[in-house]
TrEMBL record, chains A, B:
GO biological process: D-serine catabolic process
Molecular-function GO term, any one: D-serine ammonia-lyase activity
Pfam families recorded: Ala_racemase_N, D-ser_dehydrat
Regions annotated as coiled coil: none
Domain D-serine dehydratase-like: 243-333
Keyword Lyase: yes
Entry protein name: DSD1 family PLP-dependent enzyme
Protein family according to the UniProt entry: Belongs to the DSD1 family.
Entry superkingdom: Bacteria
Record lineage: Bacteria, Pseudomonadati, Pseudomonadota, Alphaproteobacteria, Hyphomicrobiales
The keyword Lyase is assigned to this record: yes
Length: 350, 350
């Protein structure tokens, strides 16, 4: 299913003339990054410097760090990374940060590619206005040791809007704002070579609008409950399959009507609610977290459920922070374990 | 502060004539387990087999696995662990599990110590009635390859009741139930050598009631927001210090009145709400998660806050699942980094 998801997104991108730089914040796995690149992706996006270090170490090229790298020790690490990965790109949204990057790259005798990050209105990262975007792009272009690579515009909040029409309308409005900035930059001789952003939730809308040159899709490789309830392409069909599962096990069943499984707050992300149960229980069974180590499953009235030692399979509520709890993937084809892939970037949140 | 917390709990236990087997589910660290044992603890509790494997590998003795170990592969691992740690103890709450443990221990030619787990009424793990406790204790005692070690009674839900009097009243009522079972076992010739349970939230009440022989305290080593708001000993004073902190960094500050830090859903447990901000911001600053990688801090009206590259220090909302996101502790005395301790049991949720 993972391979079909990778192939399906690659085919979509080819058909719509847009490039992919999938986000490794989802999978944290060089094995998956290699498969995405083999299917045509330009490289991988990385949320943090630590994630990029792991990907570069594993030989993954075409890396773009999508959050600002600001501290002096981090910029020192960035220069070491640039030495091994000359095509590395980093985003920036503040003149002080651009100045620090320019000084560091000059001191290292290297050229660092910088993408100007533009806030789409959610006030997370990015410059706050078209004027600030223009000023920062000029600053980057004027710095001898920096290369102005383009712009980033990531509408994170919009990715999980469940109704396609609402998502499309809001993204269309936001993308008009981006288009205005791209035009202003172009008029100033700063036409962005790269316009990067988008995600699994908006990829079809982004591709249709034609402003982005590449998409930072992440979750499509695995899918999760949050995205499964979104109509991704406006046709009511699911273009990607649920490829990531958590196998839990019943460890206690002393009270009739319920059982306790070995997967709690330490086994999956909790901010997106309870995980749907994929298999191993009677219809109508409900799930409730029962602390750090366990969860309780409750069976419908009068129905008996699995006893101790039974396997209960869950859909992750939110894939990225769930993956970030585990050290390895167990790769299964049908019912056969075919490989174990390390989650090499796990915990690299800095 | 960690060392003072370890010493304070050890002194409390000595003064009250109760033993400690602190829970490694909190710290996942052999370095901390060793310090607890040096201060007088009997060993460490472990939530899962995988955690016990890591602790045993690091030479920690006196291990008690507090959740049932049920699957055939897990019992095989348990026997391998028993070979290296003959004083290992495991809890059980189901006759089928006791039978499987007895068969495995007999086949391995070893003696396994089993603690009968009693449900205090929260229906997570443990036998559901005094009769079931007696029957399971008899089954354990009758199995040649098992050693009946005692009982476990863990009131997890009660640990975080904020008001001391309510916590005391509920625990007193629950402990009366436990006491009845202990008396019934004793009358049957099955007096439990070990009565284990309790936690940071109830330790003072448990010690006063005199039914437990040892306490499974965990969070006291670090403390967290959940426990900081609990009156732990009924005197309104905090017996333990906040020893665990998250240093975040401002990575974006493009919008007046707010800033973005580099710590989001992947950097701390989220089920216990937002982390209080310990330092680095003006009074009245609020915290809001902003996705997997970031959070937003918002300053009071008209007050300016830290700019990019500033450090903002947070109190973990809930220590155990926060620790489970990191690979190492940075051990600080005053302002000096004095050591780095691996979180060797991280991710060992099975």
């Amino acid at each position: 299913m993972l391979e079909r998801n990778i192939a399906a997104m690659a085919a979509f991108a080819r058909a719509h003339g847009i490039a992919l730089r999938p986000h490794s914040k989802t999978h944290k796995s060089p094995d998956i990054a290699r498969r995405q690149i083999a299917a045509g992706a330009l490289g991988n996006c990385c949320a943090k410097l630590g994630e990029a270090e792991v990907m570069a170490e594993a030989g993954i090229g075409g890396l773009l760090i999508t959050s600002p790298v600001v501290s002096a020790p981090a910029i020192e690490r960035l220069m070491a990374l640039l030495a091994r990965s000359p095509d590395l790109m980093v985003t920036a949204d503040h003149p002080d940060n651009v100045a620090a990057l320019a000084r560091a790259a000059a001191a290292a005798g290297r050229s660092l590619s910088v993408v100007v990050d533009i806030d789409p209105g959610m006030h997370r990262t990015g410059v706050a206005s078209p004027e600030a975007a223009l000023a920062l792009a000029r600053q980057v272009a004027a710095a001898p040791a920096l290369r102005y690579a383009g712009v980033q515009f990531y509408c994170g909040r919009h990715q999980h809007i469940e109704a396609f029409a609402q998502r499309r309308d809001e993204i269309t409005e936001r993308t008009a704002y981006l288009k205005g900035i791209v035009e202003a930059l172009t008029a100033d001789g700063l036409k962005p070579a790269i316009v990067t952003g988008g995600g699994t939730g908006t990829h079809a809308i982004d591709a249709a609008l034609g402003v982005f040159s590449e998409l930072q899709v992440g979750s499509y490789v695995f899918m999760d409950h949050q995205y499964n309830v979104c109509d991704l392409r406006g046709d009511g069909r699911a273009p990607f399959e649920q490829a990531l599962q958590i196998d839990a096990r019943v460890v206690s069943a002393s009270t009739p009507g319920m059982a306790t499984i070995d997967s709690g707050l330490k086994s999956m992300a909790t901010e997106a609610g309870a995980p749907p149960i994929l298999s191993g229980v009677p219809d109508g069974t409900t799930f409730r977290f029962a602390g750090d180590e366990h969860a309780r499953i409750t069976f419908p009235d009068g129905v008996s459920g699995p006893g101790i030692d039974a396997v209960v399979t869950l859909t992750p509520p939110h894939c990225d922070p769930t993956v970030n709890l585990y050290d390895a993937y167990h790769v299964v084809k049908g019912h056969t374990l075919v490989d174990i892939w390390p989650i090499a970037g796990r915990g690299r949140s800095r």
